[in-house]
Design a protein that fits this description.
By secondary structure, the chain is α+β, with helices and mostly antiparallel strands. The protein has helices at residues 2-30, 35-50, 79-128, 135-148, 184-199, 202-215, 220-241, 247-261, 278-290, 299-311, 322-328, 366-372, 383-399, 417-435, 456-475; strands at residues 73-76, 129-131, 155-159, 166-168, 174-177, 341-344, 351-354, 362-364, 378-380, 404-407, 411-414, 439-444, 451-454. A hairpin with a 6-residue loop joins β12 and β13 (451-454). The longest helix has 50 residues, at 79-128.
C-alpha cells in the first residue's frame, strides 16, 4: 500500500505540472483551434490523474550490470543492528499506514459530501419542480431532439429554487429552467445548449473529473483543473449551438445567456451541467461566441496531451553505469550473493568482468578494477580474540534476562534463559567455525555494524570453476 501511495503522489505532482503547462498555453491554442478539441484534450489529463500507473519505457543508457556483492561473501548483521533496522522499518510502516488512512478518509469524505449534496438537490427539485406543459415549448424541444438525433425521453421542468438553466440525469435527462417567463426564441437556444450537453455525454465527463478530484482531493491543482474544464465545456457547447450561424444569431444567443444568468448561480451540484460559470467564464464564452474566425481541428493538441501524459510515466532504466556499480558494490549495501565472472584474453591481456551471469561484459585493467572496487580494509577475528569477547558476552547476556527486545522474525520478545542459551550456542558455533578456518570480520573500513563471513574452501572451488570457464572460452 505504501508503494501505491508513493506512486499516487508522484503521479499527482507530475500531472499537476502538465496541467499548469496546458493552462499556460491555452490562450495561444484558443486563437487557433476549435474549442471542442481543447475541451477533450483535458479528458486525457483527467484520465492521467485517475490512472496513476503507466506503461514503463526502458531506456538503456550503458551496457553494464549491477554488482551487489563479491563472490562467496555472506552478510551477517549483528543483533543490535537488526533491531535498529527493524524499528526503523516499523516506524516507516506505521507512518505509511497513517498517511494511507488519512488519504482514504479524505476520499470517502469528499465523495460522501458531494453525494449527500446532490441527493438534497434532487429532493428539492422533486418538491418544487413543475413539469412544462406549454405546447409551443414542447414542440421546440421535440424539434431540437430530432435535429440532434436524441431519442431518449427528455423531461422539462420549471424549478423556482434554481437561478440558471441546468441538466441532470446521466441516462434519462431532465432539463431544469428557473422561470416560465423565458421568451420562446431564447428558450430555443437554452434547450439546444442543454441537449448538446446530453448528446456529448458531458455529465459522464464531469463524473470522471469528479473521480479524479476525489482521488487527488489533497492537491489544489485538480480543483483549478476542474474549474477550467467546466468553462471549456460551456465554451465548446456554445460553439456547437452557434455553429454555422450569422452574427445576428450569435448576438441573440449572447442575450439569452445574459438574461438567464443575471442573478448568478446559488445552487450547484457536481452531477449537473452549470449554465453559469462565473463572471470570468461568461466573458470568455461571449468572446468565443463572437469569434467567427476559421479555426483548425485540434488533433495536434490531442496528440500533445497524450505524449505529455505518457511522459509522466516514463521510467528511465539505466543498465547501471560504472558509478552505479561502484555505489552498489559497497559492503554496506550488500543484500544477496552474486557471482563475479572474469575472462582473460591472452592475446590482448585484457580482463573482462560480468556480474549478470555472462549477459554483459566490461573490460577493466587491474588498476581500473582496483580504482572502482578498492579492496576493503577488513579486520578479522582471531580465535583467541573471539573467545575472549564471547566470555564477556556470556556474562552480559545473563544480565539482560527479563528485558524486552525486537527483531524482524519474532517481533517483540522477552529475554529468557532459553533465549540466552540459544544465542550463546550460536556464538559458540561461530567460534568453532573460526577454529576451522572460516573468516569472520570484526570491522569493515572501520564500521563494526556490518560483518561478513568468508569460507576459503568454497572460494577455492569457485576459482577452479572459473579457471575451467576460461579454458573453455580460449578453446573457442
Amino acid at each position: 500500500m505504501n508503494n501505491f501511495l508513493i506512486t499516487l503522489i508522484k503521479n499527482s505532482i507530475s500531472m499537476s505540472i502538465l496541467v499548469l503547462i496546458y493552462l499556460a498555453i491555452t490562450p495561444l491554442f484558443s486563437k487557433r483551434y476549435i474549442p471542442k478539441w481543447r475541451y477533450y484534450a483535458w479528458l486525457i489529463i483527467v484520465i492521467g490523474f485517475i490512472v496513476p500507473f503507466r506503461l514503463s519505457l526502458e531506456i538503456p543508457l550503458l551496457e553494464s550490470s549491477t554488482i551487489i556483492s563479491p563472490p562467496n561473501i555472506q552478510q551477517m548483521i549483528p543483533m543490535n543492528t537488526s533491531e535498529n533496522i527493524a524499528q526503523a522499518e516499523k516506524i516507516s510502516l506505521v507512518s505509511g499506514n497513517w498517511c494511507i488512512g488519512i488519504w482514504i478518509v479524505g476520499v470517502i469524505g469528499f465523495i460522501a459530501y458531494h453525494i449527500i449534496r446532490h441527493h438534497d438537490f434532487l429532493r428539492m427539485v422533486k418538491r418544487w419542480g413543475e413539469e412544462a406543459t406549454e405546447s409551443a415549448i414542447l414542440e421546440v424541444l421535440s424539434s431540437l431532439q430530432e435535429e440532434l438525433k436524441i431519442f431518449n425521453q427528455v423531461k422539462l421542468l420549471y424549478c423556482s429554487c434554481i437561478t440558471t438553466p441546468m441538466m441532470i440525469g446521466f441516462i434519462n435527462p431532465v432539463i431544469l429552467l428557473p422561470s416560465k417567463n423565458i421568451p420562446i426564441d431564447e428558450i430555443s437556444f437554452i434547450l439546444k445548449h442543454e441537449l448538446i450537453h446530453f448528446k456529448r455525454k458531458d455529465l459522464w465527463y464531469k463524473g470522471l473529473v469528479f473521480l479524479a478530484t476525489s482521488i487527488h482531493w489533497f492537491n489544489p491543482i485538480v480543483y483549478l483543473m476542474a474549474k477550467e474544464i467546466a468553462v471549456e465545456c460551456e465554451i465548446s457547447c456554445d460553439a456547437e449551438v452557434v455553429k454555422g450561424t450569422d452574427i445576428d444569431k450569435r448576438q441573440q444567443y449572447i442575450q439569452a445567456i445574459i438574461s438567464v444568468i443575471k442573478n448568478g448561480s446559488r445552487v450547484q451540484t457536481s452531477f449537473s451541467t452549470n449554465f453559469y460559470g462565473g463572471k470570468k467564464g461568461i466573458k470568455n464564452r461571449i468572446l468565443s461566441i463572437m469569434d467567427m474566425k476559421k479555426k483548425r481541428t485540434g488533433i495536434l493538441i490531442f496528440c500533445l496531451m497524450i505524449i505529455g501524459v505518457m511522459i509522466t510515466g516514463v521510467t528511465i532504466t539505466e543498465n547501471i553505469s560504472m558509478e552505479s556499480i561502484e555505489d552498489s558494490a559497497s559492503l554496506n549495501d550488500l543484500v544477496e550473493d552474486v557471482n563475479v565472472m572474469s575472462y582473460l584474453d591472452e592475446e590482448t591481456g585484457e580482463t573482462s568482468y560480468s556480474w549478470d551471469d555472462d549477459v554483459t561484459w566490461i573490460s577493466l585493467t587491474d588498476e581500473e578494477y582496483e580504482a572502482k572496487f578498492p579492496t576493503s580494509n577488513i579486520e578479522w577475528w582471531t580465535y583467541d580474540e573471539y573467545k575472549e569477547w564471547l566470555d564477556i558476552e556470556k556474562v552480559q547476556l545473563q544480565d539482560i534476562i527479563g528485558e524486552r527486545s525486537w527483531n524482524p522474525t519474532e517481533g517483540w520478545y522477552v529475554w529468557t534463559q532459553e533465549k540466552v542459551d540459544e544465542t550463546i550456542q550460536m556464538y559458540e558455533r561461530i567460534l568453532e567455525d573460526i577454529g576451522n578456518g572460516v573468516m569472520y570480520s570484526k570491522s569493515i573500513n572501520g564500521d563494526e555494524n556490518i560483518s561478513i563471513s568468508q569460507d576459503y574452501e568454497n572460494i577455492k572451488a569457485d576459482i577452479l570453476i572459473k579457471d575451467s570457464f576460461s579454458i573453455e572460452n580460449n578453446r573457442e
